[in-house]
């Protein structure tokens, strides 16, 4: 199963008021495993930010001025997500904006539902943690996902964090495929970082690996088993049956 964990940043909260997408970040999972393929793009919105939106993202119109318009990257974006299940936190927000962007290009471009299905991780979180805060930051804290480097909202960084949150949130649910996905060169379309500072992809250090091991133990404590244990068992040779 191919899934794309997706996040967008926008000039404001409502597409119906003419707000636009300024950033899209995507992370590919195949059989619940990150493949290393990502798609990321800053977009010139051709309009001002609403009050407060610019502070959330750290993006400026000056930084976005030389970035492509949505119409220039639409085909590439749609080709990347085509046929996948999108995993989005509060999916109605992102899909509403993306459909509005496609509608500006004409009715022949259709909508996101024409080429993808959608799984809303916010709804999953509300089912598992009713009555609790289920923002991305809250889920990172609850599920042991390190988000200390999330100083600002960024589409690719948030998609990477959401991928970890989604895998922890759904650990032990559904079918788990152990076949390795076909090797593919990592795809990353990354624009230069805005003046507010880079949004780094964390390279595991010894400390990171220790934190990862602690998180695996926490998942085991909650679910009884975890993906890594199951994978190890699947690789272990089975004893030969004794002759009757």
Can you give a write-up of this model?
The chain is α/β, with parallel strands linked by helices and 244 residues long. It has two domains: 2-199, Ribonuclease H-like superfamily/Ribonuclease H (Nucleotidyltransferase, domain 5, 2-Layer Sandwich), CATH 3.30.420; 203-237, no CATH class. The chain is built from nine helices and five strands, in the order E-E-E-H-H-H-E-H-E-H-H-H-H-H. The chain has helices spanning 53-57, 61-64, 70-81, 91-104, 121-128, 136-143, 155-169, 206-223, 227-235; strands at residues 2-10, 21-30, 33-42, 85-88, 117-120. The chain has a five-stranded mixed sheet with strand order 3-2-1-4-5. Helix 6 packs across helix 7. The longest helix has 18 residues, at 206-223. The protein is globular. The model is unreliable at 174-202 and 233-244 (pLDDT under 50).
């Amino acid at each position: 199963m191919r899934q794309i964990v997706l996040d967008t940043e926008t000039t404001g909260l409502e597409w119906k008021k003419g707000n636009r997408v300024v950033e899209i970040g995507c992370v590919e999972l195949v059989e619940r495993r990150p493949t290393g393929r990502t798609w990321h793009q800053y977009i010139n919105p051709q309009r001002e930010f609403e009050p407060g939106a610019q502070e959330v993202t750290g993006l400026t119109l000056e930084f976005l001025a030389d970035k492509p318009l949505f119409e220039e990257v639409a085909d590439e974006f749609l080709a990347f997500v085509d046929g996948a299940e999108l995993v989005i936190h509060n999916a109605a927000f992102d899909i509403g904006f993306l459909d509005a962007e496609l509608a500006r290009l004409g009715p022949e471009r259709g909508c996101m539902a024409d080429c993808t299905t959608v799984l809303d991780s916010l709804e999953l979180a509300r089912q598992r943690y009713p009555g609790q805060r289920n923002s991305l930051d809250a889920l990172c804290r609850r599920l042991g996902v390190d988000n200390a480097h999330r100083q600002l909202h960024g589409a690719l960084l948030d998609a990477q964090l959401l991928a970890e949150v989604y895998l922890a949130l759904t650990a032990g649910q559904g079918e788990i495929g152990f076949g390795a996905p076909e090797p593919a060169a990592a795809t990353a379309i990354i624009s230069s970082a805005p003046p507010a500072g880079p949004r780094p992809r964390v390279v595991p250090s010894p400390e990171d690996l220790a934190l990862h091991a602690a998180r695996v133990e926490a998942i085991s404590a909650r679910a009884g088993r975890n993906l890594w244990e199951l994978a190890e068992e699947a690789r272990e040779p089975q004893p030969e049956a004794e002759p009757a």
